[in-house]
Write a structure and sequence with these properties.
The chain is an alpha/beta fold and about 400 residues long. The protein is built from 13 helices and 24 strands. Helix 1 packs parallel to helix 11. The structure holds flavin-adenine dinucleotide. Flavin-adenine dinucleotide binds next to helix 1, strand 2 and helix 11.
Amino acid sequence: MAEARARILIVGGGFGGLFTALDLAGAGQVTLVSPEDHFTFTPMLYEYMSGEVEAWHIAPHYKELLDDRVRNITGAVTDIDFGAREATVAGRVRRLAYDALVLAVGGVTNFWGVEGAERFTLPFRKIRHADELRWRMTDALDRIPPDAAPQDARAAATFAVVGAGASGVELSTKMADLLRDAFERRGLRGEPRVVVIEMSDRVVPGMDDDIRAVVERALNEARVEVHTSTRVVRVTADGLVFEHGGAETEVKAAAVVWTAGVRVNPLVERLALEKDRRGLVVAEPTLQARGREDVFVLGDIAALRDVEPTLAGTAQLAFQQSSLAARNVRAFLEGGELKTKRFAELGEAVSLGTENAAVLAGGQVVSGALARRARFALYTQRLPTWQHRLRVGSSWFFGGTKAWPLGL
Ligand SMILES: Cc1cc2nc3c(=O)[nH]c(=O)nc-3n(C[C@H](O)[C@H](O)[C@H](O)COP(=O)(O)OP(=O)(O)OC[C@H]3O[C@@H](n4cnc5c(N)ncnc54)[C@H](O)[C@@H]3O)c2cc1C
């Protein structure tokens, strides 16, 4: 048994932090600090945007997930004094003392210094970003007169997505399906336009070739306009300019969504911990920050040797690390032996529009409506707590998971 009064402070309530907190509940005085009052199951943020799932399914409140063995504080940690073993939380006078610290604050959108990107684009990481994007699509549609000429309707319903990684692909195919459905329902002539801009020479650059073939077909069927080997030069209030082969092109858009990169959380930049050249905290195989045996790091902020490159920066890695972090925090507090673990690839699943998906498991790619159902089944198992899984699983099974049309 761990020392009952040991103070365990967990900073960040995402995949790494929340699952560590759930595992450590009762192992001491466990406190979870996070700026929002809910967890976000990011792999299904696209389904939330399209109305296939509801906020309570994928963004349950911590108070629903955590019992009274974990104290939850809503706030952002702004500084950590490693010598005094205390963390400062914005707006709180009293600092939080700890005996063991778990840091899992994740990443933030990387705009790569592109002119106008931070000011004018929508990131896509939080529930509020999905709400804003849905609102922007509905608003653009509402401004199109019923008798608009096809080319005018198309111009008014043009949206750009920067980045054709899994995020950009999942988002653009959903947007294209939703917008086309709205055109049909409203009797608008012509069709909407969704443009994707990708710097590399291929879509989903980090993924397996088999799954890329399915993704390319889905983008084509959804009539998403893909520009590879293309760089965004600047973003403005009403669109963007991109460059391809030395020529610049302007695209007027009702919204530009930025999915083109993640950088380390600014809190991590400020902390006096050893970092690698990407700014990630160097972690020992036990997940202890190098040189700080009482500080454990995991998820998107941790640099670990011997992790498959395709696993880096994924929820599946943060999730797998959480059980090791919890185990080693216990061992550290008890003076026991700390362990290491090999993290496994759990397969890939991408949604492709509102009726389609692709799942790669055991070297096989499955696509279509069946893959979409498999993705829902898979993700039901990955949600936090069995009570939440049960509630959500029955809601999806009995209530269905059809997209909710824009504007309804
Ligand atoms: C739209 C989207 C879709 C994704 N889809 C997939 C997918 O399909 N499969 C997959 O494997 N991965 C996916 N990812 C990546 C995955 O979400 C991350 O790799 C994973 O969430 C990392 O876990 P984490 O705990 O490190 O960080 P996060 O889950 O991001 O959690 C960080 C937490 O820290 C909190 N925080 C931030 N700053 C502070 C602070 N100063 N003080 C206190 N708390 C703070 C944040 O609010 C958040 O709650 C997706 C990401 C996004 C954005």
